[in-house]
Amino acid sequence: MTQQPIEAGAVDSTVTRDARLGADGVASGDAPMSREQVLEAYRLMLQSQAIDDLAIKLQRLKRVGLYAPVQGQEAAVVGSALALDPRRDWLVPASREQPAMIRHGLPLVNFFAGYMGRLDSAGIPEGVKLLPRQQAIAAQLPHAAGLAWAMKLRKERAAVMVYCGDGASSEGDFHESLNLAGVMHVPLVVVVINNQYAISTPFHKQTAAQSLASRAIGYGMPGIAVDGNDLFAVYAASDDAVRRALDGGGPTLIECRTYRVGFHNTSDNPNDYREQEEVSAALADDPTTRVERYVLAQGLLSPGAMAQLKVEIRAELDAVQRSVADLPRPEADFIFQNVYDVLPARTEQQRAETVKEDRR
Amino acid sequence: MSRYTVTMPQLGESVTEGTISRWLVSAGDRVAEFDAMVEINTDKVDAEVPAPVTGVLTEILAPEGAVVPVGADIAVMEVESSAGVETGSAVAVEEPVAAMPQGDVPDQRATPEAVAATAPTPASTGLERPTPPAPTASSPRPSLDGDEVVLLTPSRRLIAERMAVSKATIPHAWQVQEVDMSGVAASLAAHRGSVRRQHGASLSFLAYMVAAAAQALRKSPEVNATFADDRIIVHRAINIGIAVGLPEGVVVPVIKHADQLSVAELAVALSDLTTRARARQLVASDVSGGTFTVNNSGALGTLLSYSVIAPGQSAVVTMGSVVDRPVAVDGKAEIRPMMYLSLSLDHRVMDGLQASAFLGACREWLEGVTAMSPVS
Predict the structure, then answer these.
(1) Please, what is the end-to-end C-alpha distance for chain B in angstroms?
(2) Where do you find CATH 3.30.559.10 in chain B?
(3) Fold type of domain B171-367
(4) Closest Cα to residue B40, out of B58, B61, B65?
């Protein structure tokens, strides 16, 4: 999984910088991130691992409904999200970008409240430029294209970053959104997390194309494929794309090639459709371990401080999930809130019936 | 110290049961909340289920290899009250539950965890893998003047789903035998008063029937079984569910280890469970773990009924009404209290041979009762 600029006339090969963080934790080229940024990324990646671990346990105890772990994709998600300024830019997640949502400003309490059924505590706070997690495949892409178009129409200097998976790239919404983004030349960064599986469909059955980044040619935007397990490569490509978007350079498609180490979600058994050997191979190139090696080698953290950090992260998450468990559960009519300003008569009748049914 | 019952979690959408693959701790072990405790396999996922609380595992109720319905008890823990446990979870398991359609799946609203599971979280919309709607037999009919639309209550919906699943997945077959209840009637008349005085319970045909079924299941263990795709799990425990009709829907409390109880003890258990069912005071453990069901539709005058098998079980026996009928005895017509005894069976698990043997064993046990037979 090396950085592969797409060779085609329409693809701007200048989008890539030579920035790498190899499996041995050794950087090459120009390090694109500051010390502080590397430490922020490392903390987010560790926190993502701890959230996966805790949320899966809570799901097994039925305290969380359904959970899709990030495991294996931490560098792709964190490296891209860190290229955004949360005060300025918008983030539009799919369903597996937990650390990006938290980094962009979603409080941990709201984050866990969503997974634990405390829906009226799970909203995105006013001022956080984040759309809700989208479970429906590719459905977030039209929203993101529209949002980016709105930024352009309003002349706001802001980029919109949207995530989707390899499976989403085969959906109609993907084509319509990227085509519109290209035509309107909007400030959109499309990050395709190619984790090799759309639930159980492997990449070679998803598309006959060698690369998803090559689709950018058809939309008239730059496309770049990066090693999605390389924090520096992902960050450099994303940073370039965000800068271009802010400078009126239009949209970019980034394909992060990675591997979904965990199951698709807690209702999935990947042993049914893939071999353990390929999972083992992916585990041997864990993106967080790369960063950890770099952090230690550069002396950004001592081994003791690193151990302490991991303890602190877990303690914070445990305290948050306990406080969320104590939150009230939503009333039945919560489902009717936050959709209409004024409920239509028919929907109001449904709401009244729901409340009546709930009180029985 | 307080007692905490660990139940089979629902490990995925539409998952109804799990197989205990391996216990990672033994009875007597101390475990911390979230420590891996048991490996469970389901048709969707294989998972390590962590300990729900910190405490000592005192008893394993579901051994390795057991197929356990979602919500059924699998282990008991002792929890130190000072261990920082959310008492809400421990207490909630003991809350009264609403009506259950069948004995082996408690209403999932009984546990706080289940509420999170059923709440419409964005994550659980299931959009990526939609669950197909239950097949409907007919399209909605056009509305007529005076129609009333009755929304499904949660218990009605659960019954509907489980009945549809049973009929859609279990190839039902049906057999009937006729039982001479003279001996049981004589025993009932002889012991009714003493059982009421000594145990405060009313002796009934149903108590004898449960005893007969429990003893017959010992002889025909293949009837006390669960069909699980590629194998049949024969249960050693004989836990008999008793269908109790309530206006909002049938509930099926379970008499655990019914084969180890005398007729009088069964009468006591039946009185307790039916009284609490009618008072809506059953708790989750009362309605879980059933391996077989007895249905007494005869109590309301029905002669024969073709009952639907509870998903996860292999058969249900139904008592018809005990009615005086002329029968041939030693070449002469006599009037005897007769009962039709019918068995709905899962034809994947057993054939007519085993079903007839089971019904025959029930009949022989019931016809072998006399006024002199001990009931205590």
Answers:
(1) 35
(2) 171-367
(3) Chloramphenicol Acetyltransferase (3.30.559)
(4) B65
Cα dihedral sign, B365-B371-B375-B376:
negative
At B98, the amino acid letter reads A
- Return d(Cα A112, Cα A59) in angstroms, integer: 12
Q: Cβ atoms within 10 A of the Cβ of B83, count?
A: 13
Is B15:B43 a contact under the CB 8 Å cutoff?
A: yes
Greatest Cα pair distance, chain A, in angstroms, is: 67
Q: Which residue has the tokens 């139904």?
A: B318
Cα of A75 to nearest chain B Cα, Å:
23
Contact A93, A163 (CB under 8 A): yes
- Is B111 an interface residue toward A (CB < 8 Å)? yes
Number of A–B residue contacts, CB under 8 Å: 101
Sequence-distant (6+) residues with CB within 8 A of B99 are B107, B155, B246, B248, B249, B250, B251, B280
Phi, psi angle pair for B140, to nearest 5° = -60, 140
- Find tokens 């205590």 and name the residue: B376
Active site residues of A: 260, 264, 273
Q: Tell me where in chain B the CATH 2.40.50.100 domain(s) lie.
A: 2-94
Q: Give the DSSP letter of residue A168.
A: G
Bridge partner list, A216: none
Q: Would you tell me how many other CB atoms lie within 10 Å of the CB of residue A142? A: 17
**Mind listing the pLDDT tens digit for each residue in B108-123?**
333 333 333 333 333 3
| Beta bridge partners of residue B343, listed in sequence order | B175, B317
In the structure encoding, which two tokens stand for residue B155, read together?
Answer: 């218990």
The percentage of residues in chain A with a pLDDT greater than 90, rounded to a whole number, is 76
Amino acid identity, position A44: L
- The two three-digit tokens of residue A142, written as one number: 């039209």
Those of residues 221-250 in B touching chain A at CB distance below 8 A are none
Pick the CATH number of B2-94 from 3.40.50.2300, 2.170.120.40, 2.130.10.10, 2.40.50.100: 2.40.50.100
Instruction: Answer whether B10 touches A (CB < 8 Å).
Output: yes
Whether A101 shows a pLDDT value over 70: the answer reads yes
- Written as six digits, the tokens of A212 are 């998803």
Q: How confident is the model at residue B142 (pLDDT cuts 50, 70, 90)?
A: low
A121 residue type, one letter: S
Q: Name the residue among B45, B115, B116 with its Cβ closest to that of A267.
A: B45
Query: ipTM, 2 decimals?
Result: 0.71
Q: Which residue of A has its CA nearest to B151?
A: A357
Quick one: pLDDT at residue B128?
39
Structure-token pair, residue B14: 């539409």
Q: Answer whether A65 sits within 8 Å of B129, measured CB to CB.
A: no
| DSSP helix/strand/coil, B307 | coil
What does B133-194 look like in DSSP terms, one character per residue?
A: PPP-SSPPPPP-TT----PPPHHHHHHHHHHHHHHHHS-EEEEEEEEE-HHHHHHHHHHHHH
Other Cβ atoms within 10 Å of A131 Cβ, number: 18
Which of B270, B266, B321 is closest to B299 using CA atoms?
Answer: B321
Burial class of residue A274, CB neighbours in 10 A (0-12, 13-18, 19+): middle
Mean pLDDT on B260-267? 94
CB proximity B46 to A under 8 Å = yes
Please give the radius of gyration of chain B, using alpha carbons only, rounded to the nearest integer. 22
What per-residue confidence (pLDDT) applies to A360? 67
Answer with the residue of higher pLDDT: B122 or B3.
B3
Average pLDDT for A81-87: 98
In angstroms, what CA-CA distances link B314 with B70, B221, B341? 17, 11, 17
Q: What angle do CA B174, B157, B149 make, to 5 degrees?
A: 115
The H helix count followed by the E strand count for chain A is 13, 10
Residue B308, pLDDT above cutoff 60 = yes
Domains, chain A, with CATH or none: 4-329 (3.40.50.970), 332-360 (no CATH)
